[in-house]
Every structure is written in structure tokens, then in C-alpha cells.
Design brief:
- There is one protein chain.
- This protein has a five-stranded antiparallel beta sheet, with helices on one face. It has a three-stranded antiparallel beta sheet with strand order 6-8-9. Strands 7-10 form a two-stranded antiparallel ribbon.
- A hairpin with a 3-residue loop joins strand 4 and strand 5.
- Helices cover about 40% and strands about 20% of the residues.
- Helix 4 packs across helix 6, helix 5 runs antiparallel to helix 6 and helix 5 crosses helix 7.
- It is globular and about 60 Å long.
- The protein is of the alpha+beta class.
- The protein has two domains: about 80 residues, Phosphorylase Kinase, domain 1 (2-Layer Sandwich); about 160 residues, Aminoglycoside 3'-phosphotransferase, Chain: A, domain 2 (Alpha-Beta Complex), CATH 3.90.1200.
- InterPro entries: Kinase-like_dom_sf, RIO_dom.
- Its EC number is 2.7.11.1.
- It catalyses: L-threonyl-[protein] + ATP = O-phospho-L-threonyl-[protein] + ADP + H(+); L-seryl-[protein] + ATP = O-phospho-L-seryl-[protein] + ADP + H(+).
- Keywords: ATP-binding, Kinase, Nucleotide-binding, Serine/threonine-protein kinase, Transferase.
- It holds the Pfam family RIO1.
Amino acid sequence: MEDSVNKLEQALGVKVVYSEKRFSRRNNVFFVEAVTATNVTQRYIIKEHVNSSTGNEVFILNALNKQGINVPDVIWHDNNIIIMPYIQGVLLVDLLIDIEIEEELWIGELAKWLRKLHGYMNISSQVCLCMSDLNLRNFIFDGRKFYGLDFESVCFYPPERDLGGICAFILNNHPMFENWKYRICNSLIRAYEALLPGGGSMTKLDHDAIWFYLIEELKAAAGRRANQRHYLNAKIEELSYNKFFGNE
């Protein structure tokens, strides 16, 4: 941490007055407050890559920014750390239980963000740019728009992969498999479909594919979480395709 703070101070000509570690499974992430030479307080995020260099993520963030896709700006980087502005907002993991923020608003904005990402670098009519890690902590809502936060890598799949994957994360995040979460997932899929050509009157999404990727992500979660494996496998068995897509 100390080395990264020193790099920030030297690179930006500021003095760090406060820092704290933020949650991250793969890397070291720090929130930092610093004061400029003119006594203005600035907030930053420092991301230390633990098992990889920063080059790939910096390239992806810059490319997405140029396309107008909401991701953090890269202020400075070297081979080990990226310095980005702090984005004030609510993580998707917290939005699910935040009754202060209108649900319809953030669901619509999340659908718009995903649709915009999927519209960039289409390899074919069926395969597009997707997020490798759909963890709910990798999306933040600033009250008006969403940002994607983790781009160490990307992948190419049908858009249904991201929709099914993010719905799986929504369902198996605590509190798990609540009825209102099925409604949120259904609303997200419908909001995404409304953005497709035809305004939603004729969907091009494959619900069977969304279901496939949702179940695959739940199986992956069961594989990662030994203490919840039995419960997750039982929920996978009892999940209803018709209930999920609102056909009952």
C-alpha cells in the first residue's frame, strides 16, 4: 500500500491524507483522499494488480472510454497499479436492498449499459464483447448512470451470457433466491429487450440461452462455495424456467 500511495503522490503532485482498503478477491484496491497544492481534496481508487500486469486492463478501459461506454478513466498507471478517479455511487450488490433508489430507474440504466457494451466490437450477429467477471461489485450506479469497474479481461459470447450470468449473481447473493429477485431479473431482461430493434415488440433474445448461462453460473457458484454447495444444487434443481421468465 505504501508504495502505491507514494507513486500516486509523485505522479499527481498531491498529498494523501486518508486511505482504506476496499473489498476485492483478486487484487488490492484502495480508496484514497488526497489534497492538491491548492488545497483541493480529490478522491482516487488505486488498483494493485497481484497476478498480472495492468497493460491489458488499461488498454480495455481506454478503448471503452473512447466509445462512450461508462468505465473509470485511467489517470495514471505503471506495470503494477492503476490510478482512477473515485466514482461516488452505489454498488449493484447494495442497490438490490436500497429502497431509497427507484428500482425501475436503475434496472433500465443497467440494461442500457449492458446493451451499449454488447454493441461494441461485435464479432458476428450472435457474439459480442462481454464482461469476464459479472460480480455485482463490478457495477456502480451514480444516481443517473451505471459504470462497469473490472476489466482485467473481457470475453466474447452471445449477449445472453451476460444477462444469464448477472441474474445468477443477483439470485445467489444474500438474501438468496427471494421472490422479488426473480422479478428484478425478469425486469432486467425485459428492459434489455426493449432496447433491441423493434422496441421490444419482437425480441431477438434467446430465453433458452439466458437460462443455460444462468444455470451454468449457479453451478459455478456451487463449485466455489463448499459450505453452500448442497443448498445451491438443490435450488438449481427446483428452479422453474416458466417462473423465471414470468410465464406462469
